[in-house]
Amino acid sequence: MTRWKASAIHLAISITIALITLTLMLALWYAPPFFSAAGGREVLMIMLGVDVTLGPLVTLLIFNSAKKLSQLRFDLAVIGMLQISALVYGVNVMLHARPAFVVYSKGSFDLVLASDLSDADLAKVKDPAFRTLPLTGPIYAYTELPENLQERNLVVLAAFQGGKDLPFFPQYYLALPPRLSELAGAAKSLSELKKYNPYRVSELDRVITERHWNDAEVGYIPLRSRFGDIAIVVSRKSGKTLGSLDMRPWE
Fold first, then answer.
1. Staple partner for 140: which of 110, 176, 219, 229, CB 3.0–4.6 Å?
2. What is d(CA 197, CA 189) in angstroms, rounded to the nearest whole number?
3. 3-state secondary structure string across the chain
4. Which pLDDT score is estimated for 236?
């Protein structure tokens, strides 16, 4: 076997493992539309880029059919262990950076990642629905400033000093379904997206036509994240989420 053939076989195996890993991540932790909003694209490309290319490249460099079989097995085993270690590390990073909560407050959503919340934050939560970080996709929640004046001042002061804003205090999360009417009333016109995405007007028109959306029944609410904001499409009648648009939702 030539080094090129050995490297090609190694590349095929690496690509297969990478595709399986990507499929599982998208299905469990980063289901659309949260993959790009949570920065998953950048992290995943680095992880898979290193894991898919590193092993086959090293195999190409060191493979020599003239070596003893035992030596070849040892070399390939070392490469495999390095790849597995890189993959495990990358998956662990993706796990800890996964979307945990989508929190509605004052006319917009905020995406809260698992890494944004500490054990101390979760220990303050009384509602069992928000006491643990989900493993199968983010949970929608509603939040508003606490009635207690002292607690309210602490939240406002934290945000004013550049610390955590209200959506990152899970002890104030409330169930979203009873408050869907507020989302319905806050929904913005889909036509506004054309002003913020002038080079994607035709794309937006095509999506609206394909999904039979109209401004009278469907609107959007901005979702804010540190990696890029998107638009969550909601019903203007029920407030239920209908989908998402990976477009700028505001200036």
1. 176
2. 14
3. CCHHHHHHHHHHHHHHHHHHHHHHHHHHCCCCCHHHHCCHHHHHHHHHHHHHHHHHHHHHHHCCCCCCHHHHHHHHHHHHHHHHHHHHHHHHHHHHCCEEEEEEECCEEEEEEHHHCCHHHHHCCCCHHHCCCCCCCCEEEEECCCCCHHHHHHHHHHHHCCCCCHHHCHHHEEECHHHHHHHHHHCEECCHHHHHCHHHHHHHHHHHHHCCCCCCCEEEEEEECCCCCEEEEEECCCCCEEEEECCCCCC
4. 94
Residues 6+ apart with CB under 8 A from 127: 173, 174, 175
Low-confidence residues of the chain: pLDDT under 70: 43, 47
Query: pTM score, two decimals?
Result: 0.85
Listed in sequence order, the residues at least 6 apart from 248 whose beta carbon sits closer than 8 Å to its beta carbon are 193, 196, 197, 229
244 contacts 204 by C-beta, under 8 angstroms:
no
> What is the spatial distance between Cα 178 and Cα 142, in angstroms, rounded to a whole number?
10
